[in-house]
Amino acid sequence: MVIRHSGEKFQMSWHNIGASLNGLLDKIHDEMYKKADQARSEHTKHVENWDQFMEALDQKFVCLAPWCDTVKCED
């Protein structure tokens, strides 16, 4: 067997394969979630102004910016 997201290769016995696969699928799900969560966290920046926003965006970050829902604040 090969786990696609990690490249890990191993053999698994046919004996009790159903229970083994259930556990393996839970492990794969947890690992993929942790990897995606870490990637999101590493590529998110808090920005306070337009220059910071554009710089972060150019670096392909997800930008978190304050929003007050008023024209004065948005300007």
What does this entry look like structurally?
The chain folds into 2 domains: 1-42, no CATH class; 43-75, no CATH class. It has 3 helices and 2 strands. Strands 1-2 form a two-stranded parallel sheet. The model has no long low-confidence stretch (mean pLDDT 91). The longest helix has 26 residues, at 17-42. The protein has helices at 17-42, 50-58, 71-74, and strands at residues 44-46, 62-64. The chain is mainly alpha-helical and 75 residues long. 0% of the residues are buried. α2 (50-58) links the parallel β1 (44-46) and β2 (62-64).
Which regions are unreliable across 5 or more consecutive residues at pLDDT < 50?
Answer: none
* Biggest pleated sheet: 2 strands, parallel
Distance between the termini: 56 Å
Shape: elongated
Q: How many structural domains does the protein architecture include?
A: 2
How many helices in DSSP terms? Answer: 3
Strand content: 5-15%
Order of helices and strands: HEHEH
Q: What is the rounded Rg? A: 21 Å
Query: Taking all residues together, what is the mean pLDDT?
Result: 91
Quaternary status? single chain
Strand order of the largest sheet: 1-2
Sheet/helix structural class: mainly alpha
Number of strands: 2
**Helix content range:** 40-55%
Spell out the key features of this protein.
single chain, 75 residues, mainly alpha
Give a concise summary:
With 75 residues, the chain is mainly alpha-helical. It is built from three helices and two strands; from the N terminus they run H-E-H-E-H.
List the topology elements.
Elements: H1 17-42, E1 44-46, H2 50-58, E2 62-64, H3 71-74
Parallel strand pairs: 1-2
